[in-house]
């Protein structure tokens, strides 16, 4: 074994300690068991992609990571701090360390782009107008939209709305960014702009990322690691390379894009009814 100086060993240990840890997390809604004793560790700077059929609990899982939901049993840790049982008052200190891009971008239609991005900053800090404007400019610059400050959400394309929502999600330079289906509904070039942004935030800000997606192009592009949720458990945990070789039929369905097609068909039928 190669000897390391003590401080290097300590650094290396802290780098390997998970940023987030879920231990035997159970969650049910009435009779419906959504998470059935899930264990998951997220590592610093790594992008973990969560796949699974519609309704398999991916959003519920994300909500546990940021404590928007509490498990029925099990534990959730952020670094070494247990967060599933933290009182709301202590959570407000932690929340800025998480950036959450919700499935529906959820911009406020009656606020301008700049006001949307500024919203969490104005809400949670006492920063002056000039400083807020400067943060907004930097965050919009990060997602390639500096200059659109005075536009209204209704004037933006779907891809631009996602990017504004992302600028807002990173207002506090979060350590972790969670993306819930960030490319759904976007055409391939716009979807790829979002993939590029996920890579950029990882590269330039060193964020730990969790991406829920049905989009295999996105999976292949951004994933360091892929986990697949099925019937409340992970049935796959590995890399893009290893998922391509999986012979589990439930996994293959995703890899070959057939599941995505089925999901779209279901959504289409729901839309018609
Ligand atoms: N707050 C809730 N109350 C009751 N059922 C819920 C709630 N949130 C999610 N569910 C149910 O849990 C299951 C998993 O939901 P979700 O995590 O949103 O799935 P997806 O994998 O598509 O993101 C679904 O059947 C959903 O209807
Ligand atoms: Mg979902």
Secondary-structure blueprint:
Elements: H1 6-16, E1 20-29, E2 32-42, E3 47-51, H2 58-65, E4 73-78, E5 81-82, H3 88-94, E6 98-101, H4 113-124, H5 129-142, H6 158-169, E7 176-180, H7 188-205, E8 208-212, H8 216-222, E9 225-230, E10 233-238, H9 240-244, H10 249-255, H11 258-272
Parallel strand pairs: 3-8, 3-9, 6-7, 7-8
Antiparallel strand pairs: 1-2, 1-4, 4-5, 9-10
Helix pairs in contact: 4-5, 4-6, 5-6, 7-8
The chain binds adenosine-5'-diphosphate and magnesium ion (MG).
Q: What would the keywords be for this entry?
A:
alpha/beta; binds adenosine-5'-diphosphate; four-stranded antiparallel beta sheet; 11 helices; Rossmann fold; six-stranded mixed beta sheet; 273 residues; binds magnesium ion
Mind explaining what this structure looks like?
With 273 residues, the chain is α/β, with parallel strands linked by helices. Helix content is 42%, strand content 22%. It has a single domain (24-272), classed as Rossmann fold (3-Layer(aba) Sandwich). A 6-stranded mixed beta sheet has the order 6-7-8-3-9-10. It starts with 5 loop residues before the first helix and ends with a helix. 33% of the residues are buried. The structure holds adenosine-5'-diphosphate and magnesium ion. The site of adenosine-5'-diphosphate has 11 residues, from strand 2 and helix 2.
